Amino acid sequence: MKVLVVGNGGREHALAWKISQSSRVTDVFVAPGNAGTARDAINVDIGVNDIEGLIAFAKKENIGLTVVGPEAPLSIGIVDAFESEKLRVFGPTRQAAQLESSKAFCKNLLRQADVPTADFQVFRDADDAMRFIKGRYPGERDRCPVVVKADGLAAGKGVIVCKRRNDALEAIDRIARRKEFGSAGAQMIIEERLEGQEASVLAITDGKTILPLPPAQDHKPAFDGDTGPNTGGMGAYCPTPMVDDALMAWIEEHVLVPSVHTMKRNRKPFRGVLYAGLMLTPQAGPKVLEYNCRFGDPECQPLLMRLKSDLVDILDAVVDQSLDQIEAPEWDERPVICVVMASKGYPGDYDNGEVISGIDAADELADVKVFHAGTTLDGQDVVTSGGRVLGVTALGDNIAKAKLNAYTAVQQVRWSGSWCRKDIGDKAMQFMEQQAAEM
Length: 439
Ligand code: AMP
Ligand code: GLY
What we know:
alpha+beta; Rossmann fold; Dna Ligase, domain 1; five-stranded antiparallel beta sheet
């Protein structure tokens, strides 16, 4: 079978790498791909939102399965379009993808399904939102700290965590008056700010059966110690000890099952990857911060590095809605750490075209895989072409060893201005030390 992966990031490199290991797969194409997918698969020069172009390619090449990586094409209906052409495709329909493309849709679904989430209100009007923040009655409890969110897709930038009332008023002004996020800000969500550790629990579902994947933890802030501006994710590890088997079972019962069930009941069955961004609150347990409708990036890289079973069997079963019939997948017992190497200036402005050296030396180390994100080929050279450039990913017998392996590999790789966080995985080790001390 021929498989087409849509996307060009680290997630799609990991997908293409894993899919190409399947005995059932003859060719893997990636549209548009990067320098890493050019090596592990075949790149096709079609953009992720060019649905007509992708359909024409899938027909011409007789593609047996298309796997959509990013949210943008899902939110504009790539799955609906493929399905109406009788092409097999992995991912949610446009309506189901609203779980990610509209935060108001997501919050209303969570409320309907009685899934724990931060208290919230939806606003269309800046004045109403500001009145809400200021409190309607004199002496009413200050609503801050709150989080103000633009409803639609805003490349991770439409979420503003506000400590003080003035920050919240400013956030409302940016979203609803200055329209910094364009039409994504047509509605706003104001919600209670939660405290705790964040975890990413991803599950694969065919709309009926749910296959939870091992829990992971992302590192969204740019700099060590979770400081600096938010990014797409500077590194991830899997599994996270913060979500043990008992908590995972709780999350499945109280979060995943009611969400999938309610989507089905609302006649918007969700098929694909349901990614719950969770806050593990010390008092009230896990609460859903958001849903994404696809694999996380970088969470996908450590997840797939640990998967021993054939990914294509799982993806296929989702398309056929027969997930209840496949065997439970096998996972490598060892943890994995993925360290993102970024361009100078990211998440702000950065330059492209820096020549990268040492990728092969890093890749040759045992239990290491370098996934490409923002790279492209310039003749024989691999050069930078994005903010997040590489995801250096390593297995180890424990988190400390996985960290050592990943950072040893990072040291092999060089380009002008490259940087990374130095503390990926430390939160897991601190958590385990704390637990040991409490015993
Ligand atoms: P989201 O895109 O909704 O996941 O938000 C992006 C990031 O903003 C999350 O990973 C959290 O770090 C933070 N965040 C979102 N909602 C809340 C909340 N209610 N309380 C605290 N932090 C939040
Ligand atoms: N790692 C965060 C995301 O994929 O949205």
